[in-house]
TrEMBL record:
InterPro entries: DhaM, DhaM_N, HPr-like, HPr-like_sf, PTS_EIIA_man-typ, PTS_EIIA_man-typ_sf, PTS_HPr_His_P_site. The keyword Cytoplasm does not apply. It comes from the Bacteria. General (non sugar-specific) component of the phosphoenolpyruvate-dependent sugar phosphotransferase system (sugar PTS). This major carbohydrate active-transport system catalyzes the phosphorylation of incoming sugar substrates concomitantly with their translocation across the cell membrane. The phosphoryl group from phosphoenolpyruvate (PEP) is transferred to the phosphoryl carrier protein HPr by enzyme I. Phospho-HPr then transfers it to the PTS EIIA domain. This is Phosphocarrier protein HPr. It comes from Paenarthrobacter ureafaciens. The lineage of its organism: Bacteria, Bacillati, Actinomycetota, Actinomycetes, Micrococcales. The gene is dhaM. GO terms for biological process: glycerol catabolic process; phosphoenolpyruvate-dependent sugar phosphotransferase system. Residues 2-129 form the PTS EIIA type-4 domain.
Amino acid sequence: MTVGIVVVSHSSKIAEGAVELATQMASDVGLVAAGGTDDGRIGTSFEKVLAAVEQSLAEAAGDGVVVLTDLGSAVMTAESVKEFASEPDAVHLADAPLVEGLVAAAVAAQGGAGVEEVRKAAEAAGGAVAAPEAAGVQEPDVTADFELINPLGMHARPAAKIAGGLSGMDAEVTINGADGASIMELMTLAAGQGATLHVEARGEDAQKAVDYVRGLVADGFGEL
């Protein structure tokens, strides 16, 4: 099994749409939408969210659940549900943007990450995890250049795979100057097929991070 993920939104359409998007990139992960009120209006429902969390806990079979929310009252509902859940210690609330955080979390879970790593991946996607301050400019420990061979280049799925994997490593990685752990920054590169990705990595897992990106690019992100 993998870590389960619950999406809490004021809108059922937003929750279901976000789950549909993330499923395209992480088909083996249990994603449960809990959007709107019980009678279909905009808002949140304690009962609906609790049912989604309990379903996810059962499907995760001990691996834990990460909950992502959209607006303020959804956060409060999720916090209340955590208190009343059958396994409150297995429920982890992520302070992350709903869509970007969900995609990063789902990709991390698909790769076998544990519940804390999945939560951190979600939060890193939105910049919630601050990078350590450097005392001046530090030379990269490892650098490499890779040519994109997949037909669509750097779109949402490749960006999610890169960011999801790198977010769990002890390395600071930039790709063409963009934060390698940020889906949105990678997508703004607008790098098409044939473009070169210049990767710079610093930290304990620098070589591992570069090798990870190398493998994804060489495989065409599974799109060839």
